[in-house]
Design brief:
Two copies of one chain form a homodimer. By secondary structure, chain A is mainly alpha-helical. Chain A is built from nine helices and no strands. Chains A and B meet through helix 6, helix 7, helix 8 and helix 9 of A and helix 6, helix 7, helix 8 and helix 9 of B. The structure holds a DNA duplex (18 and 18 nucleotides).
DNA sequence: GTCTATACGAAGATAGAC
DNA sequence: GTCTATCTTCGTATAGAC
């Protein structure tokens, strides 16, 4: 019960943050949306909004990490596809209004949230680098390449939100695939 | 006089938006920072905050466009360097707290600001594509590659803000340079 | 035309009834 | 332990004195 409510609030917060940023996530709106009294927010999250935000960002981080880890081995292009498809779905399901809550945390004025964003970005980078190395990318280059994939996809999500279409994301993925191909010559 | 005040407000808004997003830009703070009475805001910007935001985003857009246009001809790597150096300076000058106001507009809940962000991103893409084509990139591929550069740099700015260092941006630029080199074989 | 003072709503947070 | 009612602060916006 209580546990479910908590989780629903975290997931709802993640979506609201991904849509409009941390400042646009109102505890009032969230409580109403999830059918929870406003006062209960501070029972579930004694640290208030900041605690909820951090948890929501970590929730998104873990969700995407799991998707990458569970992806089948289909070469560098496959890794890239799995990662970008996750965000393509988020974009499409929200009519290109929602994006990534981790980037929102990274662009917050509160440095506390920067730290959480950094951790998530690094986790994604590491798991992506591992997958790329498994798929034939030289181990020395994989981390740098993984970071580039994360950055380019995050930026492409922003461009797609501005455009209202998946075209920017699609084109960026095309070019990233070229880059990955040239980096994994043994395939 | 009045003209200078207006321009200062636009530039100040651009910085505040780049630092914390549109919601974090308060008209009160801006007026105080620029030494302007709060009420005067609505004399200079009858459309209120929305008008000021749009103008600030366009201001950033024009600023960066001009820098790219005025860059000397030094091949694809040079074009990339000029674009990324602009943002490296913004990051360093703000101790990695400020980023790009255009991305902030793209991630706003208000669709009106998406339109402005789209225009600026497209303008950058076009001028970058032109520079890349001049530098030896096949004209058919230049627009797609330019879009990738914009997206990757925007994302890298976010990663660098989260990390508190320029490392992510530097590494992404390295990989983008590889990609550009492979796309401009005649050099 | 410029600026002071204020209206009005919404934000985060908390006190205290049940 | 849950939830209602409320406190305080800060947001945009405006009315009206000068």
């Amino acid at each position: 019960m209580t546990r479910d409510t908590r989780q629903r609030m975290v997931a709802g917060a993640a979506r609201m943050i991904g849509t409009g940023g941390i400042d646009a996530m109102s505890l009032r709106d969230l409580a109403e949306q999830e059918g929870v009294p406003l006062g209960s927010t501070y029972h579930h999250f004694p640290g208030g909004k900041a605690e909820l935000v951090d948890e929501a960002v970590r929730y998104v981080g873990a969700y995407v990490t799991r998707i990458i880890e569970q992806a089948p081995e289909t070469g560098p292009r496959g890794v890239l596809q799995v990662f970008s498809d996750t965000w393509r779905a988020t974009l499409a399901q929200s009519d290109y209004r929602s994006g990534c809550a981790v980037l929102a945390a990274a662009t917050s004025t509160d440095p506390r949230h920067h730290e959480v964003a950094r951790e998530v970005f690094e986790a994604w980078q590491q798991v992506l680098a591992g997958s790329l190395a498994d798929a034939g990318v030289p181990p020395a280059r994989a981390p740098r390449l993984a970071r580039t994939v994360v950055a380019a996809v995050e930026g492409a999500i922003g461009l797609s939100r501005a455009a209202g279409t998946a075209d920017p994301l699609d084109e960026v993925i095309e070019e990233l695939a070229e880059l990955l191909d040239s980096a994994a010559p043994t395939r």
